Amino acid sequence: MSGAILAALGLGTGGAGGGDVVPAAVNWTDVYDIAVGSTNLQTITGISRPISRSASLTGSGGLQTVVNGASHPYAGAFTVAAGNTVAFLIVNTGIMTVTGTVTIANVSGGGTVLDTFNYTVTRGR
């Protein structure tokens, strides 16, 4: 794991007017699985108003966000509030093995990288 995920979540000090937009540190686990793999669940804390986060992946496969237990295909920046739980899913889209890195950024905090995680998901049998 790296500081990229922390930046993506907007972790750090300070924030724009209207409340703190820099969450407490988060650390999603790397993903190694078959067909669909998931990170660990992280609870967002340390912010006083909702923030927008984005994710990008460097490899193949499908990325999904899981916010408060609801999974959705990643379609761009999404909003989270204090107390929300967040995890990520990597879905193998039929290729023998999908690998890459996901970087999470805090759009509300100037694009600061909050965390990064690696993934390897093999095709199901």
Structure, described:
- The structure is a single chain.
- With 125 residues, the protein is mostly beta strands.
- It is 6% helix and 46% strand.
- A five-stranded mixed sheet has the order 1-10-9-4-7. Strands 2, 3, 5, 6 and 8 form a five-stranded antiparallel sheet that branches.
- Strand 5 and strand 6 form a beta hairpin.
- The radius of gyration is 14 Å and the shape is elongated.
Short recap of the structure:
Helices cover 6% and strands 46% of the residues. It has one helix spanning 3-9; strands at residues 31-34, 36-38, 42-43, 51-57, 62-67, 70-73, 78-80, 85-91, 97-106, 112-122.
Shape: elongated
Runs with pLDDT <50, length 5+?
A: 1-17
What's the total count of β strands?
10
Mean of all residue-level pLDDT scores? 86
Query: In what order do the strands lie side by side in the largest sheet?
Result: 1-10-9-4-7
Taken in chain order, the helices and strands follow as HEEEEEEEEEE
Number of helices: 1
Protein structure class: mainly beta
Radius of gyration: 14 Å
Q: Tell me what portion of residues adopts beta-strand conformation.
A: over 45%
- The percentage helix is under 10%
Question: Which sheet architecture does the biggest sheet show?
Answer: 5 strands, mixed
Q: For the record, give the distance between the C-alpha atoms at the N and C termini, rounded to a whole number.
A: 29 Å
